[in-house]
Amino acid sequence: MNEPHDHHHAHAAGHRHPPQADHDDTLTYYRRLEIAVRELLIEKGIITAGEVSKVIEDIESRSPEGGARVVARAWSDPKFRELLLRDATSALTSMGFELALFLDTQLVIVENTPDVHNVVVCTLCSCYPRMLLGLPPAWYKSRAYRARVVSEPRAVLREFGLELWDRVAVRVHDSTADLRYLVLPMRPPRTEHMSEAELTALVTRDSMIGTAVCRAPS
């Protein structure tokens, strides 16, 4: 397992820039290569167009709602939270998640606290807990995010609109092909009366990546 990097130094405030759009339809070299290889495999009868469509439908059916339900359960059930932090696979299985496609991938849950804020990146490509969050946004895959969040995490978080106290340590976790991270954000204050379903609605995709925090309704 890669050790997380701790960053304690504050960075000078800069101009805030909106994060990149979630989707990028640019026809890059690698996207053209994928299309060519896929069409060749179909033409040679190695796979069928129906099989490709089925896989795409399965991938696109996954959304951050799955991860949000896991977070809300952890906020509501201390025993589940303990299991989730200790053995994420067992915790997810207990909620009915089908992990057969991800048996070779380890999932580690990192918990935000008043003293520690976690953020996730994949510096090599775009490894991401798709089983819980769906497809990664374009900015997560961008070279700028992958390089800068490791070297200047506070500046990057500030550009997402997240300003942290200097006393809060920022830990950056680098995902790999066989290791994924998911952030367990802190539960917002004044939500003790809310049901698990209501809590689920407060959890955002970005809060589970670490570029945002969960907030109570106004």
Distinctive features:
single chain, 218 residues, alpha/beta, Nitrile Hydratase, Chain A, 3-stranded mixed sheet, two-stranded parallel ribbon, 11 helices, 12% strand, globular, disordered N terminus
Describe the structure.
It contains 11 helices and 5 strands; from the N terminus they run βαααααββααααββαα. It is α/β, with parallel strands linked by helices. The chain has one domain: Nitrile Hydratase, Chain A (Alpha-Beta Complex), CATH 3.90.330.10. The strands form 2 sheets. Strands 1-4-3 form a 3-stranded mixed beta sheet, covered by helices on one side. The protein starts with a strand and ends in a 9-residue tail after the last helix.
